[in-house]
Structure formats: structure tokens, C-alpha cells
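Researcher: Let's try something more involved. This one mixes different molecule types, so please make sure each is placed in the same coordinate frame as the others.
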Amino acid sequence: MSGIESLQKSFELYFNHRHFPLHPKSLYDPLEEFLTNSGKRIRPILCLMGNELFGEIHDDAYHLAAAVELFHNFSLVHDDIMDKAPLRRGKPTVHSVHGEPTALLGGDAMLVVAYDYVNKISSSYLKDVLRLFNKTAKEVCEGQQLDMDFESIDHVNMEDYLEMIGQKTSVLLAASLQMGAIVGGASEGNQQLMYEFGRNLGIAFQIQDDYLDAFGDPEKFGKQVGGDIKSNKKTFLMIHALETASGDQLEKLEKAIKENPENKVEQVLEVFKVCGIDSWADELKEQYLQKALQNLDDIAVSKIRKEPLHALANFLITRDK
Amino acid sequence: MSGIESLQKSFELYFNHRHFPLHPKSLYDPLEEFLTNSGKRIRPILCLMGNELFGEIHDDAYHLAAAVELFHNFSLVHDDIMDKAPLRRGKPTVHSVHGEPTALLGGDAMLVVAYDYVNKISSSYLKDVLRLFNKTAKEVCEGQQLDMDFESIDHVNMEDYLEMIGQKTSVLLAASLQMGAIVGGASEGNQQLMYEFGRNLGIAFQIQDDYLDAFGDPEKFGKQVGGDIKSNKKTFLMIHALETASGDQLEKLEKAIKENPENKVEQVLEVFKVCGIDSWADELKEQYLQKALQNLDDIAVSKIRKEPLHALANFLITRDK
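Model: All components are placed in one shared frame. Result:
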């Protein structure tokens, strides 16, 4: 059983090479550079753990770990164009340095190279993995489209928000785990539980992210608190507040959203606290985490094999990070 | 053996249904609409003919015909964003009606659905087809990038131009034929000849396209003659003219390009004629066509099976259309 750090290291050993042809440099070099400005490699680690839960890690799991990492980065490059974002992981985005056409085309090429990695796996798993990969890729596109659609809607209900955020962020985590499970030889039932574990964990993680943006300790959180509130972003907290606040509190909330006063963050946080949005969010996160852990418990392998995934869930879902 | 029209009809029967989920409509409906505004379906026909050269048309060839058609349309949607084109096939482009973010994301989803069709084929061919599909997809991206890079370069040499135009337009024709050949059970050698036939035919077609833009009969050509010259587009003709003209002619040509006079098209055409660019282009087209037909001749199947591909080559490469 391998821990997070050890898997991170072995993935980097596998992944740390050139992924694209040398020519044309104008297309491929920006992509290589973007990939080295790495994130935490959460999805590859999930893929490797999804395999190791059922058996020794197979080369195929590394190929798929690379595929999901490339897919994730493709979606970031394209999302940044759509959101007109100047920065990503503290560095200028691909389109802001190399122009939108190259970022668009580069994203396309990165998606194709993700499929190249998928095609490296054993033929016997290829059809199933490709089906899951395609389904997930479509869902991620759908999530992004819904997210953009929501920007022009005043009131988004919780059901629609859950669908959007599930597709935009959770399905890729879930699919990473399931792909690992597939090449690890898991039964269909265990694969499904692995997927549900990832989906519920992803939602718990998103609730925590929304919570920390509002109530986190700025020093531990590592970024300014209240960013979502300032930009009127739809979050679990805001949607629930708009659905449950009434009377003066609702009026205060709607006024703050509409008028963007200087002390908007304080005003909104006051409403959140009066309406108990903080404890509600904490409970909701806990519910999804427990669902995820139940999915993990239900998988028919020995408890000791599950330890790395327990540790990863704890690593992702902590109260103050 | 089926002719062009009969294959066109049977492809439409297979292809004429909804390809995308119903929800979210904002993402998928623009794509469905774009697909019904169809072109000539040349690539699907090539795929079906590539199969039928070697045996009865298999369902897999229809799946791959749909995959190449979706891939082609994905590339059009994204190219139109990059080129900021307002019209495609006489109708407003996806991004000009639905906005760039939806067109970008819709193109991504269309590429993924192309892979869904690839995944419908028999497992025994999947790895080979996916390898060819990915290789081709990367080359098409590279061709588009080189084309954009060339816009900011004054002098492009013929070798670089040939590489660009081959990747941007010919490799998908070649791969369509080869994919058909693969699922038709062709040997590797015959597959390769099928590919080369498509690649050479594609280049002959592009030379003809450039030729007709300069020297075509406007009534038969169906669009204004001289469009490429007006927009300073790099074409076979212009690159060869810049490489071969000298003295007064070169001066006249460079002046026309630089100063964009009212009678630019006439001026440039005069240089083309004095330097014999028209007959050079006609000969070059003929050379590539003959190479293509030689590739077809070299394929080890009976002559009668090759008739539809001969007819298609004639349909694509005619002197005045």
C-alpha cells in the first residue's frame, strides 16, 4: 500500500518527460511549460490508488493517470480562455501569453494526447476505459456550460447547482478512481462503489472550498477570504442562504448582492451567520464525506488496503486548510 | 461497388439523427444545427469507399465515417473562432451566434463524441484505428498552427507550405480512407497505399482550389475570383510566384502585395501569367493526381473494385468546377 507522497513521486518519475512533438514549437512548447507548472496531481494519485486497492499497480494505471492529468490540464487551458482569466496557479495563463488561438488549439492537442495515453493500455480494458473517459469528458463540458449559463441567472436552485458542480469537478475525480479500479481488475460492483466514493468526496471537497472562502482563516487558507462573495459567485453557501433567509436577512443579502457596498463581505457573512449557513455547510460536507466513506467501506476488499484512500480523504477534507 | 451518390445517401441514413444529449440545450443544440448544415460529406464517403475496396461495407465503417465527419466539423467550429469568421457554408458561424465560450466548449464536446463513434467499432481494430485517429488529429492541429504562424511571415518557402497544407487538409482525407481500409480487413501495405492515395489526392485538390481562386470561371466556380489575392493569402501560386519571379515582375508583385491597389487582383494575375504560374500549377496538380492514381493502381485488388475511387478522384479534381 502506497501513501500520497510516494505515489506523487512515482507519478512524477513516469510523467516528467516531454509529452508533445518538438515541432511546431509555437504550438507545443507552451503546453509543456504549462504542465510543469504542476498542481497537486490529485487525479493521477486517485487513479493509482484506485488500482492499488485491488492489486499491484500496473503500468496501465500510470498511462491512465497521465491521461486524466492531461485531460484536467486541457480543461484548465480552455476554461481560462472562456473565463478570460489572467492567472492560473500564480502564473500567466496560456492564452494571456501566447494568444487565444494558440491556447485553443493547444488545448485541443492536449486532449488528443490524453487519448494517446488511454490508447497505451491493454486492449482488453480499452473499450470500457474509453467509454468512461468519453462519458466523463462530456460531463465536464456540460458542467462548464451550466456554470456559464448560471452567471446570467439570478436564482439558481440547489438541485441544479449540485448537478453542475458534480459534473464540473467531481466526475473526473470519480472516473480517475474507477479507471484505476478497472485496470486493477475490480468487479463492476466494486468499480461503481469506487466511482461513488470519488463523486461524494468531490462534492464534500467543493463544499469545504466554498466554506473556507467565506469562513476560513486567511493565513491558513492561503488566499483572501470572501473572494466568492465579492464576485457574486454562486456557491453552496450563497444558494442555501438565498433559499432559506427571510425578512430582514433576505433583504440585507439581496441589497448587498445588488449594490456591492464597500463592506459587502462583512454584510453577507453576518447574514450567513444569523441564518446558520456555516453550521449547515459543515454538516452537509460531513454528510457527503460520510457517504463517501460508506462507499469505501462497502468495497469488498480488506480494510488495510483502504488505508491510503482514507488518508487521502482526510488530506482533502480538513477543517482549516 | 457503390457510387458517390449512393454512399452519400446511405451515410445520411446512418448519420441523420441526434448525436448529442438533450441537456444542456445551450451547449448541444447549436452543434446539432451546425451538423445539419452539411457539406459534401467527402470524408465519410472516402471512409466507406476505403472499406468497400476490400470487402462488403461493415457497420464499423459507418461508425468511423461518422467519427471523421464529427472530427472535421469540430475543427471547423474551432477554426472559425480562431479566424474570427462570420460565415461558414453561407450561414453564421457557431461563435458568432452563440458566443465564443459556447463554440469553444461545443467544439470540445464534438471531438469527444467523435471518439464515442470510434469506440463503437470492433475491439480487434480499436487500437490501430485510435492510433491513426490521434496521429491525424494532432497533425490537423499542427497544420492549423503553422497556417497561423505563416500569417506573420513575409516569405514562406514551398517546402514549409507543403507540410502545412498537407497536414491541414490532406491527412484527414488520407486517414478516412485508411480507417475504412482497416475495418475492411486490408493488409498493412494496402492500407499504406490507400493513405498515400488520399494524401496525394488532397494536395492535388488544394492546388486546384488555389488555381481556381485565381483563374477559375466565376460562374462555374461559384464564388468571386481573386479572394486569396485580395487577402494576401499564401497559396501554391503566390509562393511559387514569389520564388520564381524576378526583376520587374517581382517588383510589381511585391508592390501589389504591399500597397493593396484597387486593381490588385489584375496586377497579380498579370504577373502570374507572365511567369507561367498557371501552367506550372496545372502541371503540379497533374503530378499529384498521377501519384495518387499510381498509389491506387498499386493496391492489390481487382481493377473493377477501384472504379468508385477513380470516379471520386475525377469528381474532386476537375478543371472548371
